[in-house]
Amino acid sequence: MTLQFDPASPGQITEWWARDWGGFVVTPERVYRPADVQAVALLDGGQQVAFVSWADEPAGAEIVTLDAHVEGRGYGRAALDHVEGHIREGGGTYARLFTTNDNVRAIGIYLRRGYRLVRLHLDSMDRVRELKPGVPLEEHGLPLRDMWEFRKEL
Fold first, then answer.
1. Which pLDDT score, from 0 to 100, does residue 69 have?
2. Topology classification of domain 3-153
3. pTM
């Protein structure tokens, strides 16, 4: 595995988010547009295998999106390591993120990596659907209702 992180241009972020996220990301606290974040693509042997974006905050950062295009190879974990390193280098003391209640695989990864569930945002997907009516009511056989907020002290 020959991993390389390439910073993403604003145009690349716009393109990726249009394809994978409907152009913007809604969390319980804010709506993110591509211009609001930094991002990197993770390459393995020249092939893009993951993409991660984040927004710096005064004392840390929020990881806004994390997409591993190939599961089970550690690409998501490598992307998390990269962002956490960026946060630490900038003097940040925490990383946080939101995920939906159906994303059981990711929840397990976050917990194993030291993230802690700090807040449940019950019925927060109703707000998301107001802005993104195409978001389904169910994913992976589970109702898609809530967002879970995770935080890791760095």
1. 86
2. Aminopeptidase (3.40.630)
3. 0.94
